[in-house]
Design a protein that fits this description.
The structure is a homodimer of 346-residue chains. Chain A has 346 residues and is an alpha+beta fold. Chain A folds into three domains: 116 residues, Rossmann fold (3-Layer(aba) Sandwich); 132 residues, ATP-grasp fold, B domain (D-amino Acid Aminotransferase, Chain A, domain 1); 57 residues, Dna Ligase, domain 1 (2-Layer Sandwich). The first copy, chain A, is 28% helix and 26% strand. In chain A, strands 6-5-4-3-2-1-7-8 form an eight-stranded mixed beta sheet, sandwiched between helices. In chain A, strands 9-12-10-11 form a four-stranded antiparallel beta sheet, covered by helices on one side. Chain A has a four-stranded antiparallel beta sheet with strand order 14-13-15-16. The longest helix of chain A has 15 residues. The radius of gyration of chain A is 22 Å and the shape is globular. At the A-B interface, helix 1, helix 2, strand 4, helix 3 and helix 4 of A face helix 1, helix 2, strand 4, helix 3 and helix 4 of B.
């Protein structure tokens, strides 16, 4: 299978998307990979799979490659002898943060009728926004961490006990996130967060909370990853996260009871189906008093959470064959014809 | 001002979008209009403003016009002497239903950095889905009509009293909507609705309920329309709705108290700001026991609800000058540079 990896984008996570994309070369060994880079200026460039490395992007050398145009059915390179379509079977959206996670890429792939692995637009809009993720989970009966919602121009009032964690609702990474240990630190943390977003959520910061990650997708059946207990850090700063996105070796399953595992996997399935069909996502859960709480949905997890799956490449192939189809709408101009007849016009 | 009207699209409301678009020629008298048609196959065509009429589309004659390509900064026509940009100041998204209201157009306009009048992607995803509209309204403290949510594969249980109204959550028009007078009619109505969507909401059908429409936008201040009490029909069927989309003459304000008007306008402002900045929307409210309940948000109302505004064209011009700006993200490859240094690679 020929997989076109779409990466880069106009995102704070542009650079970690490059790291994720390069990592895929080590992971998708049996597949042909076609690399399509989205520059910071949002132009499309074909990148030579043999030559890909991070310097190609930081040096701007990628600009020497073929520039591509998006048209019905695919990406095209314009040349002397007309327009030539870039060949691949499926796109994998590996753009973290803005553009990739907020629904732009999904919208374009759907509009131009290009098969793609990624959450669809609606799933993207909901999961990109931490506040709407809460609404979604609540509507599906999945519990979430308690929260308060503050707006840039609204009152800066927090009623929960400190310490709390402040998160801009729309950023995929840890940018703008602060842990606030006491009320006196609140204003500064909110100033920082509101630099990035008009909306912020405040959650209790639970020191030493048990955290578990579950990734997966639905192909011709459920394909769930192992449950991972991620390394404990207060939270990952940007550089640590960056290194984390280049992971390509299997990790061990968390040592948990079958009962807890079933609860986590049940919550994952409820959140995933049918909204996230066509994508590989990772859900991060907290466990408090034996109750499973959704912390976050990662709609485009770092290096697609490949290290959590026993057969990642096989799963990607199966998923590519089981992508959701858009409803066909046939347009026959019945109403325009009938109005023209009524008006006596031909 | 040169306004590019984007219309058509792969939508059940393709034909009424054509009607809306043609109506704009009568409404935007002082402006230059550039018409860009999206065919049922989702290709872009430039349409001659002088010659536009509905037959151009039903006959397929539009295909003789220039086909356009979307690239950074705008739409381009390829010709013998290279690629020529179509000139305009702002796009007005007039695509009703799928493509226009579900966030695809907004995503593309944002990605390609084209100024546009329309709800942005997040606002589109929420308002295109009647269930998510409920979440949004509830989170903002705006009351909505009571509802129950049914899924295609879930239990078909309705606990509210009949008659009820069944609505697929994702369709902009009345397609798939039924009024169910008693329990025995439920299954058939749900079969119809689930033909169109995996999710359905059930609401009480309130015979003779008072209904009021409020349209508006935020330019350099609030620009609210008159409050309209729409004509009473059980609900508009497709053909009636079709005619409704070609309205271009002012209607009268509803005869309501100042107190009720303030409540309706207050609810509108709460729903609109800041999520819907950059768009002209219409909110349809019910009034039950003097309480204002949101019925639906129309993110791309028929002919932009022009007939509700005293100075529609002036407002469009002001809105074009006050569109929300996407945050600039500068990418300097700091992390890639630092990792390259750490690895000792140039």
């Amino acid at each position: 299978m020929n997989i076109a990896i779409l990466f880069g984008g106009s995102s704070f996570e542009h650079e970690i998307s490059i790291v994720s994309a390069i990592t895929m070369k080590k992971v998708l060994k049996k597949s042909t990979i076609t690399y399509i880079f989205i520059s910071p200026q949002r132009e499309f460039f074909l990148v030579d799979t043999e030559k890909i490395n991070s310097k190609l992007f930081s040096s701007g050398e990628y600009k020497k490659g073929k520039q591509l145009t998006l048209k019905q059915g695919g990406f095209f390179a314009d040349g002397l002898f007309g327009s030539k379509q870039v060949e691949f079977d499926v796109v994998m959206n590996l753009i973290h943060g803005r553009d990739g996670e907020d629904g732009k890429i999904s919208s374009m792939m759907t509009f131009f009728d290009i098969p793609f692995i990624s959450p669809r637009t609606e799933a993207s809009s909901l999961s990109y926004n931490k506040l709407y993720t809460k609404f979604l989970a609540e509507s599906l009966g999945v519990k979430t961490v308690a929260y308060e919602h503050l707006t840039k121009n609204g009152e800066r009032k927090v009623t929960m006990d400190y310490p709390v964690i402040i998160k801009p609702v729309r950023l995929g990474s840890s940018i703008g996130v602060s842990i606030v240990k006491e009320a006196s630190e609140l204003d500064y943390a909110l100033d920082v967060a509101f630099e990035f977003d008009s909306d912020v959520i405040v959650e209790p910061f639970i020191n030493g909370v048990k955290e578990f990650n579950q990734a997966g997708c639905y192909t011709d059946g459920w394909e769930l990853s192992i449950v991972e207990e991620p390394q404990k850090e207060e939270f990952l700063d940007f550089e640590k996260k960056y290194m984390d996105f280049s992971r390509d070796s299997q990790v061990l399953s968390a040592d948990i009871s079958d009962e807890l595992k079933e609860k986590i996997q049940g919550a994952f399935k409820t959140l995933y189906d049918p909204l996230f069909r066509g994508s590989i996502i990772r859900c991060d859960f907290f466990v408090v008093d034996n109750e499973v709480l959704l912390n976050e949905i990662n709609p485009i997890p770092g290096s697609m959470a490949n290290y959590l799956f026993p057969d990642f490449e096989g799963m990607v192939n199966r998923l590519a064959k089981h992508l959701p189809k858009e409803q066909k709408i046939s347009i026959d101009y019945t109403y325009i014809h009938s109005i023209q007849s009524a008006k006596g016009k031909a």
